[in-house]
Amino acid sequence: MAEVELRNISKSFGRIDAVKDVSLTISDGDFIVLLGPTGAGKTTTLRLVSGLEHPDRGTVFIDGNDVSKTTPAMRNVAMVFQQYSLYPHMTVYENLAFPLRSPLLKTPESKIKEKISEIAEVLQISHKLNNRTTELSGGEMQRVSIGRALVRNPSIYLMDEPLSSLDAKLRADLRVELKHIQADLGATLLYVTHDQIEAMTMASKIGVLEEGRLVQVGPPREIYEDPVSLYVSGRLGLPRINTIPASIFPGAPIGATTLGLRSEHIELGTGLPANVIRLEHLGDQTQLHLEIEGHKIITLTDVHSQLQPDDIIHIQPKDPLYFDPSGNRVR
Amino acid sequence: MTNWSLTEPSNTQKYVAGTLVAIYALVTLLPILWILSTGFKTPTDSIAYPPKLIFEPTLEGYVNLFTTQTRQTEEYLANNPPNNWYEQIVHDKGMVIAGPSRFGERFLNSVIIGFGSTFLSVFLGTLAAYAFSRYKVPLKDDLLFFILSTRMMPPIAVAIPIFLMFRTLGLSDTHAGMILLYTAVNLSLAVWLLKGFIDEIPIEYEEAALIDGYTRFQAFIKVVLPQATTGIASTAIFCLIFAWNEYAFAVLLTSGTAQTAPPFIPTIIGVGGQDWPAVAAGATLFLVPVMVFTILLRRHLLRGITFGAVRK
Ligand SMILES: Nc1ncnc2c1ncn2[C@@H]1O[C@H](COP(=O)(O)OP(=O)(O)OP(=O)(O)O)[C@@H](O)[C@H]1O
Ligand SMILES: [Mg+2]
Question: Which of A104, A253, B58, B105 shows the smallest number of beta carbons within 10 Å?
Fold first, then answer.
């Protein structure tokens, strides 16, 4: 494993600036999760690290060496693709063996067999090793694709939404497994996900991309509790952070125009009156839809809440987040 | 309740389709059956009217095809009894075998030129198609159009210039010349067909191979080629069929050393009267290589036809 550094990387496709001046250091053993909506440049960032794309400007370092001009094979990176990309003319076993048989690694067959059965066990695909990859379900393909990365011991693992098509249980299992593997191997990972739980539980650091720009990097709790902008605050949190004009409640600092309220920032029972619109019982939580001065707010309430639509409930912000007109945080 | 399904045709559909296919097959196969049976008739039976459907088969046509014969006197024939079954057939007609005919050579020429140009077309076509499919080639669209445009007139339209060029370059009546010519004609088809097939292979597989530690060329060999076998097989069959059957250029540019079977077979008829069975025998044998080649590649070909449906 190795340290990977991106220094002032930019990449555009025609008129689209996919990645803009991104600098990011992924220390040895780091698990960095990239967050951002679709089109933010997450995949492009991974491809720039892997060498499948070359930056227009900036430098990629692996272990202190400038690799910007080298091919993917020379960088020794493993990647799980967003669209799996399993070789359709090979069996699952051959897919998993493919990187090990490469001129780069030239692993002896006995070693390959050992490694594959070990990884297949972890990913629960042992019974599928002799299948063609075209005969697998989406979730199985995704696991094989993860396996093709995990059989290796690369300088960095790049994973693009690797758990996205798995069911909840398998996803939870593999989340734990991946975390284990990372801890055991001391692996370095750059990981893309839209899943908040994955981001919060696995990341040692989260990087938030906004239209190709890396707007904040930090530990998960910092990103959640101390976002630098409205945009970052919206990346994490379920239900999503509520935004209402700062003038509704007294006490806004100078320059703040927008008030950001997460569920835990809303104290129920005191303060200003709000209309109950409806309740949504989700099992482990109950979401409360409110309206205050024409602005909708979604928060959490007691699972057994007896509130009815059109009831009035008082709410009060507690240590909320304030933002200026351009969306930057006001402290 | 109906057993309606998107993938399985109903039984009625199957019967109707089967009958239609059978009728079509009969119509297209009839001339081939005619040729096949004529090859085993005697010259007399072959021109009998009405045509004989039932007849006593003989290998006379095949013997005539492969040998040259001379008429001999009764006395000579009596003194030189036949040594084997084919000498016997010739002997019965009052002739003796003077030597092998040129059919074997001409057939071999067809094999060398047909398969040689097919190999070359597919080899060059695959490389060109890959480049057109994957790389930024300057003036790509214009080049592709130009390649296709070579197909827009019948090749024979340029017969005279080619004839003159071949004569000047010493390529007339050579294997190399004919291989070159058929490759040139086939290459445009090969490039276009193969480009279509390679375009269908997502580039992500090669990217995965690059990440897995392979070079671009190794990725091409290990990941692209195996997935392109369908395209390669069907392209090869098309190229072979053209090169194998080509008649006009073969007549024009070959006369001896490199003469292929198509211009040779009709000449058989003049050797000893109206020898239709020998012509039919030659035509029958001429059908075999393409048939065998197609059957060998059939598995890939069928997959080729359903290509888009299977993996998308
Ligand atoms: N090969 C390409 N050619 C042209 N534009 C591209 C190419 N690859 C990416 N882009 C553009 O660059 C931007 C960033 O794309 P990217 O794939 O990195 O997004 P992403 O964050 O991975 O999104 P998603 O969550 O949907 O996977 C997008 O606007 C996309 O359209
Ligand atoms: Mg992506």
Answer: A253
Is the separation of the CB atoms in B240 and B290 below 8 Å?
A: yes
**Chain B residue closest in CA terms to A98:** B212
Q: How many whole angstroms from A210 Cα to the centroid of ligand 1? A: 12
Q: Domains in chain B, please, with CATH?
A: 43-101 (no CATH), 104-311 (1.10.3720.10)
What is the chain B residue with the closest CA to A106?
Answer: B213
Can you give the residue range of the structural domain that contains A294? 242-330
A236 inside domain:
no
Cα A52 to averaged position of ligand 1 atoms, centre (Å): 13
Mean pLDDT by 10 residues, chain B (312 residues): 65 91 94 93 87 88 90 88 89 88 94 96 96 93 91 85 94 94 94 93 93 94 92 93 93 91 87 81 94 88 49 34
Q: Are residues A169 and A51 in the same domain?
A: yes
Q: Which atom of ligand 1 is nearest to the CA of A19?
A: 14
Q: Tell me if B206 sits within 8 A of B219, measured CB to CB.
A: yes
- Residue A283: left if φ>0, alpha if ψ -120 to 50, beta else—which one? left
Q: Which atom of ligand 1 is nearest to the CA of A14?
A: 4
Mean pLDDT for the stretch of residues A246-261: 91
Interface predicted TM-score (ipTM) = 0.87
Is A209 in the same domain as A281?
A: no
**In-domain check, residue A191:** yes
Residue range B44-88, pLDDT digits in tens: 888 888 888 888 999 999 998 999 888 888 888 888 888 899 989
Chain B CB contacts of A88 under 8 Å are: 205, 227, 311
- One domain, residues A221 and A256: no
Which residue pairs from A221-228 have beta carbons closer than 8 angstroms and sit at least 24 positions apart in sequence? A223/A35, A224/A200, A227/A321, A227/A329, A228/A328, A228/A329
Q: How far is A73 from chain B (nearest CA, A)?
A: 4
DSSP string, A33-61: EEE--TTSSHHHHHHHHHTSS--SEEEEE
Count of domains for chain A: 2
Domain boundary among A196, A227, A258: A227
Q: Which amino acid residue places its CA nearest to atom 19 of ligand 1? A: A39
How many CA within 13 A on the CB side of residue B260?
Answer: 29
> For residue A129, what are the β-bridge partners?
none
B270 touches chain A (CB under 8 A): no
Whether A205 and A25 have beta carbons less than 8 Å apart is answered as no
- Residue of chain B whose Cα is closest to the Cα of A99: B212
The minimum-distance atom of ligand 1 relative to the CA of A44 is 18
Closest CA to A288 of A242, A250, A221: A242
H/E run at residue A268: strand A266-281
Spatial CB neighbours of A162, under 8 Å, sequence gap ≥ 6: A80, A142, A145, A146, A178, A191
Residue A320, both tokens = 């909320």
Number of residues that make up chain A = 331
**Domain of residue A324, CATH code:** 2.40.50.140
Query: Would A233 be classed as within a structural domain?
Result: no
